[in-house]
Amino acid sequence: MTHDEPAWLRAVALPGAFVVGVMVTLQSKINGTLAGRLGSGPRAGLGAALVSFGTGLVVLSALLLVLPAWRRDLRRLRAAVSSGDLPRWHTFGGLAGAALVATQGLSVETIGVALFVVAVVAGQTSSALVVDHYGLGPAGRAVVTPGRVVGAGLAVLAVVISGADSLSGGLLVVVLALLPLVAGGGTAVQQAVNAQVGRRSSPWIATWNNFVVGTAGLVVALLLTLLLPGHLEGLPGEWWLYSGGLIGVCFIAGAAALVPVVGVLMFGLATVAGQVLAAVLVDLATDPSRVTVRTYVAAVLTFVGVAVAGLSQRRARRLASQRPAPAEAS
């Protein structure tokens, strides 16, 4: 954790991350529903992701055109990359965000919001261990401790338990549950590198850059789906199906602003609480048949896992400060 942030930002960081988690779950439901309305196959899932990213990019680009401060921050980012102060690959975090949004459209309608979120949580928590250990984010290093490993393991176990109720759906359900697991792992890296980009520009420019890269990646992926079965129909008329992009803007900007304050893992822990709680409530409201005893057990295990990992956070930071940084990969 850094210490040069204002006191009010440190005070709202964890509650803000909880709200971000709630928004991620809502975005998952919105984009999953949009994909179902757009058509079938991977083309519809990626189409929904492109609509989500595209609307966010349009809003952010319009603001960039009218706000001189944003343009100054963009120049700062370009200078940081040109000088080598910021590795160029840090600017590609949007690809991980695009992957997560794409999995929303590809899997939520089949496996449900609750299983989707638990899978994302497991991947995110496990990946955050590695991200914090190597100090990829601006909050510094936090070495891997037994408590953090146990916490991540409980989150993975929660996926297995939550998915057990869906195994009757066959191999497709298992594969679709693995997609958000992998995407969740990429999310931890995305949060770390976007926070680094935000440090050298601003959280909003980090968000704009994220949407530029993610949108480009989704365009390429959608074109590739033309080789696969599936179809696209006309755009649906409900306005709320197009709000996923604005939710994504809030999520990415919030992560870029708050990860430097609390670290990748602690930000993830707080968002997990929001995601899991909101996921169960969304499924209860829209499809109660998806919510079973195993769903509640998985949710509780997830909370226990992130709590165990969170309790180990201070010790991990202290141990990291006493050890030399690991050598960077060549």
Q: Can you characterise this structure?
A:
The protein has about 325 residues and is an all-alpha fold. The chain has one domain (about 20-320). Mean pLDDT is about 80; it is low at about 325-330. The radius of gyration is 19 Å and the shape is globular. It has helices spanning about 5-40, 40-65, 70-85, 95-110, 115-135, 145-165, 170-200, 205-225, 245-260, 265-285, 295-310, 315-320; strands at about 40, 230. It has a two-stranded antiparallel sheet with strand order 1-2. Keywords: Membrane, Transmembrane, Transmembrane helix.
Task: State Rg.
Answer: 19 Å
Class per helix and strand makeup: mainly alpha
Order of H and E elements: HEHHHHHHHEHHHH
Number of strands: 2
Structure annotation, total helices: 12
Given as residue ranges, the uncertain stretches (5+ residues, pLDDT < 50) are 326-330
> What topology, given as strand order, has the largest sheet?
1-2
Helix coverage percent of residues? over 70%
Biggest sheet descriptor: 2 strands, antiparallel
Mean pLDDT equals 81
Return the domain count: 1
Span between N and C termini? 27 Å
**Which outline best applies?**
globular
Strand content: under 5%
Describe the secondary structure blueprint for this structure.
Elements: H1 7-38, E1 39-40, H2 41-66, H3 68-83, H4 94-111, H5 113-133, H6 146-164, H7 171-199, H8 203-224, E2 231-232, H9 244-262, H10 264-286, H11 293-311, H12 313-321
Antiparallel strand pairs: 1-2
Helix pairs in contact: 1-2, 1-4, 1-9, 1-10, 2-3, 2-4, 2-8, 2-9, 4-5, 4-7, 4-8, 5-6, 5-7, 5-10, 5-11, 6-11, 7-8, 7-9, 8-9, 9-10, 10-11
Keywords: Membrane, Transmembrane, Transmembrane helix
Protein name: Transporter family-2 protein
Transmembrane segments: 7-26, 46-68, 89-107, 113-131, 143-164, 170-193, 205-227, 239-259, 264-285, 291-311
